[in-house]
């Protein structure tokens, strides 16, 4: 018989079956354990220390994954992404840490040696027009982007 740890308490509303002769009824319900009364635990199956038994590298990867998911959700909320899990097309290259004076034409000249470019755009501030120092370059084929 398997022991189920997730059931904290039960109430029998209707029992259509006859009780066995050797069944003993307790005088009252059992008192809850201190672990059940722990209010910092949201769910019964939630671990109190989620990092227990994990290596430093595993913990760091989990933190990074949570941060990336949170950033994607923020970008979705402000309208920069349609969906938090949206991925760019494979033929689009993201370029960052650009010099503020770099133009679309400069990037097109530099990256056209790798293949035919469909579109090249330095992202700029809507109000000032100043470069935000990153760009997207869309190639005709995925192999040029690699």
UniProtKB/TrEMBL annotation:
Principal subcellular localisation of the protein: nucleus
Q: Taking every annotated instance into account, which residue ranges of this chain make up the domain RRM?
A: 91-146
Going by the UniProt record, its keywords in alphabetical order are: Isomerase, Nucleus, RNA-binding, Rotamase
- Give the reactions, separated by semicolons, that this protein catalyses: [protein]-peptidylproline (omega=180) = [protein]-peptidylproline (omega=0)
The record's section on Gene3D superfamilies has:
3.30.70.330
Domain of life, per UniProt, equals Eukaryota
Q: What is its EC number?
A: 5.2.1.8
Compartmental location? Nucleus
- InterPro entries reported in the protein's UniProt record: CRIP, Nucleotide-bd_a/b_plait_sf, RBD_domain_sf, RRM_dom
Q: Which SUPFAM superfamilies match?
A: RNA-binding domain, RBD
Q: Which PROSITE patterns match?
A: RRM
What protein is this chain from?
peptidylprolyl isomerase
Please indicate if the UniProt record lists Nucleus as a keyword.
Answer: yes
Query: What general EC class does the enzyme of this chain belong to?
Result: isomerase
What Pfam families does this protein's entry cite? RRM_1
GO cellular component terms given for this protein: nucleus
One GO MF term attached to the UniProt entry:
RNA binding
